[in-house]
Structures are given as structure tokens and as C-alpha cells.
Amino acid sequence: FTADETLKIIQGLYEKRLTTYPRVDTTYLSDDIYPKVPHTLKQLKQLYADLITPLEGIKLPKSKKVFDNKKVTDHHAIIPTGEIPKALTEQERKVYDLVALRFIANFYPEAKISTTTVTGEAAQIPFKVNGKQILSPGWKVVYDDKNEEENNKEEKTLPLFTVGESGEHTPSISAKQTTPPKPYTEATLLRAMETAGKLIDNEELREALKENGIGRPSTRAAIIETLFKRNYIRKERKNLHPTSTGVELISTIHTALLKSAELTGIWEKKLRDIERGSYVAVDFLNELKQMVSEITLQVKSDISGARCPQCKQGKIIRGNKSYGCSRWKEGCTYRAPF
């Protein structure tokens, strides 16, 4: 089901008092939740006895990756309340399972994985291969047979090697082609929105986006739904594709910054500085007004789409450094500075 449907389902579970407040911006729990964990697990044992029994009688770990007051503002991450669900729909049960299993997995040991790297040389050409092997599954046992996609990911195991060993081999050539990136699904698009800053070169802006990304956990589904309603994107099976309207919109916006996550990073950084008292809100508003004025001036002076004054046949297009003619391949040499 869609991101918007998921948000509605988790909202319904909250209203039934089965899970905590859903519209949260964090994946952390506050320290005051830790003493309540044993009781919650005891209640959940009615549904997940095989997973919770191994946790009984041991001191539950309190990891900073889970419990951190500094990462919690108004509400902590979504967890089960301990109330036992009754008469849930199939979709409600799937979402509830996601929340409950994630909660339970936090109190299992870490998974231990060994990584083997073998480097070799053939005809003075270096080769390298990596292999992984699970030594101790730890928290991964919580998801055994629960996630088909994870189960289908085979770990590449390697035989034992000794340093300096050699042997005969039969070489073969495999011809392959690079493939374009896969289309986004709603799930991968949500993840991309969450990690939008990872491709930004500026470290300060990248850190600003690291905490927030594009939108908030409680608003990202609505953002995607808005794109559907405005006919900017469409869905084919699970994959998302831009519509002609969406493509035209992006091509119409010539200011690259308006289409970049970098602008979000700039704003998030300055809003954070305002919150910390190191930046003045009035200055931020004045900068926004200045930016809007400059972009408006650029749009008014943009001559893209007009008829080429040189060949009289092509249309003026905007390049990286100057305007040119759409018939440049046919020999038109028209150029004009921005």
C-alpha cells in the first residue's frame, strides 16, 4: 500500500491505543521509556512468544542508538503501547507487526558478521573479491522468514585461502552493459527524501539535511500524494514515473537551486541557527526576499523559447554558460550571454 495509506493505518492504530503517537520526527526513544520496556514486552509475549522468551531473565540493553534524550523533542519514536490488538484488518496487522518487531529487535544482541577480502593477480592485473558470513545472527532472527527480500539476498561465501597460493584457472569473458538507475517506488522515494543531503558536496549543508532531509516523517507521504494529485507523477505497478506535466514543470524552472536539495539544506541550517540564537530571523527573511527578487529578474530576462534571430528557424535554448540555438547541430552558431 501507498505511503499515504500507511500513514492513515498507523494513525488508526494510534487511535485504537495500540501504538504511540505516529507523526514523529525521530527514530529514538527517551530514557524514561526504558523502565517500561519489560512490561511492554511481557504484554507482547501473547503475540510474539517465540521472540520474547529469549529476552526474559536478562538485563535488557540500553543502547545510545535507541535511547537518547537529545534526539527526542515532543514525541519519541513509534512503539507498541502493550495493548493487545483485536480484530485488526490484514493491512493493520502488517503495519502493527512492523512496529512491534522493530521494537523487539532493539533488545536483541548485535549481529556478528565476518568479512573476507581476497586480493590476487593474474597476468599482472589485480583482482579483488569480498565475501561475508554471518557468525551470529543477533537481532536478525527477529526478521527470519518475515522479509522475503532480505531472505533472497544471498551472502557470498569464499573458500579458505592462504597467502601466496596460486593455481590454474580457466578464464572467461562476460559481456555486460551498464543499466540506468531503477525507477523509484514509494518506499525508495521516501528513503531518498530522508537521505537527500548525501550527494551535496558542502559538508555543512549535508549535515543540516542529515537531520531532516526533504520534508518530515509525518509530511513526506503527503508530499508524494500531492505530486499524484497534481499529475506530476504516475504509478506503473510499484514504480513511479514522471508525467509529461511533471517533466515540463522541471524544464520550465531554469534556476537550478530551486530544484536542488541544497536549497533545503541552506534553509534548514539557517533555521537551526535561529533556534540556537546564532542567527537573526529578520536577516533570514530579508535574504529570502532578495533571492526571490533575483530569481524574478532572471525569469523576466530569460529569452528561452524565442525564435532564433540568426537562423530564423530554431528556438533559443539555455545552456550551462550561455544561450544558444536549438539548431546548433544543423550549423547555427547563435550565442548570447546570460
In CATH's first tier, which class of the largest domain applies? Mainly Alpha
How would a textbook summarize the main sheet?
Answer: 3 strands, antiparallel
> How many structural domains in the coordinates?
4
| CATH structural fold name of the largest domain | Topoisomerase I, domain 2
Question: Considering DSSP H and I runs of 4 or more, what fraction of the residues is helical?
Answer: 25-40%
Q: Which labels suit this protein?
A:
12% strand, Topoisomerase I, domain 2, single chain, 338 residues, Topoisomerase I, domain 4, alpha+beta, 11 helices
What is the strand and helix layout of this fold?
Elements (H helix, E strand, L loop, with lengths): L2 H13 L21 H8 L4 H4 L37 H16 L6 E11 L2 E12 L11 H4 L34 H9 L8 H10 L7 H10 L3 E4 L2 E4 L1 H9 L8 H16 L4 H21 L14 E3 L3 E4 L9 E3 L1
Antiparallel strand pairs: 1-2, 3-4, 5-6, 6-7
Account of the 3D structure:
The protein has 338 residues and is an alpha+beta fold. The chain has 4 domains: 3-105, Topoisomerase I, domain 4 (Orthogonal Bundle); 112-151, no CATH class; 186-298, Topoisomerase I, domain 2; 303-338, no CATH class. It has helices at residues 3-15, 37-44, 49-52, 90-105, 148-151, 186-194, 203-212, 220-229, 244-252, 261-276, 281-301, and strands at 112-122, 125-136, 233-236, 239-242, 316-318, 322-325, 335-337. The strands form 3 sheets. A 3-stranded antiparallel β-sheet has the order 5-6-7, with no helix packed on it. The chain has a two-stranded antiparallel ribbon with strand order 1-2. A hairpin with a 3-residue loop joins strand 5 (316-318) and strand 6. It is extended, with a radius of gyration of 27 Å. The two termini are 47 Å apart. Mean pLDDT is 86; it is low at 148-154.
